[in-house]
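tokens incoming
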């Protein structure tokens, strides 16, 4: 029986026929028909599993996005309704697992809070630590590298002037200043 077409799909068509028509024409009407048939079922299942209306509404949108993006891969080995249920169930289980992981991490932090004791360190002590670290680094590098760094950062000499001092066009690895 040949059916009159609404851009390739019509309401009385079977799910698999709509999927095939969608694949052939990539027409939004076909997907809209599938959405209209299954939106309330997907929402109902999501609400049952996720328990909150807002989460179920968000999940329904995400699930239909997944279905839309995966429609070309639906093989028809099971009924379309079974496939939609499977996508819905798996998506909701993923959400539940993520929330559980998040709750577990939060609960662990409540039971075993991180060390919140803050030791005040004076600015002078921090500066002394930084100076000591800098001295340590400067001792560990070659004399030439140490001189280059001191000229640039201690004495404020521009890189192009340092290059002239060492008779080089530019210093390897340094950015050029203008």
């Amino acid at each position: 029986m040949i059916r009159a077409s609404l851009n390739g799909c019509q309401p009385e068509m079977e799910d698999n026929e709509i999927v095939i028509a969608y694949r052939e024409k990539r027409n939004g009407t076909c997907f809209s028909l599938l959405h209209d048939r299954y939106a309330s079922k997907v929402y109902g299942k999501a609400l049952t599993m996720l328990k909150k209306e807002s989460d179920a509404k968000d999940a329904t949108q995400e699930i239909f996005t997944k279905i839309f993006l995966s429609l070309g891969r639906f093989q028809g080995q099971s009924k379309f309704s079974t496939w939609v249920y499977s996508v819905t169930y798996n998506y909701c289980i993923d959400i539940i697992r993520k929330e559980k992981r998040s709750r577990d991490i939060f609960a662990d932090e409540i039971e075993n809070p991180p060390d919140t004791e803050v030791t005040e360190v004076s600015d002078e002590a921090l500066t002394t630590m930084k100076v000591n670290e800098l001295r340590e680094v400067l001792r560990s590098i070659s004399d030439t590298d140490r001189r280059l760094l001191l000229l640039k950062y201690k004495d404020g000499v521009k890189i192009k002037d340092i290059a002239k001092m060492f008779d080089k066009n530019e210093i390897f690895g340094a950015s050029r200043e203008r």
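note: Residues 123-165 form one domain.
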